[in-house]
Amino acid sequence: MPGLESEAWAQGELIVETIRRRPVPRIPLTEICFWPETVERWEREGLPRSCNLHEHFGLDRIGIYGPDLSPRRPRRVVGDDADTVVQVDEWGRTVQSLKQTTATPVNLAYGVPDVTYLAAYMEQYAALDHRVIDPAQLQEYRQCREAGDFTAVSPMEPAWFVIEYLLGFEEGLMAFLSHPQEVSRAMHRFMDYSLRHLRWLIDEQGLRFDALWFFADLCFKNGMLLPPAVYRELVLPLHRAYRQFCDEHELLFMLHCDGDVRDFMPLVVEAGFDVIQPLEARAGNDIRLLKPQWGDRITMMGNINADMIANGGEEQIRHEVVSKLDAAMQRGGYIYHIDHSVPPTISLANYSLLIRLLKENGVYR
Question: Tens digits of per-residue pLDDT, 335-356?
Answer without folding.
Answer: 999 999 999 999 999 999 999 9
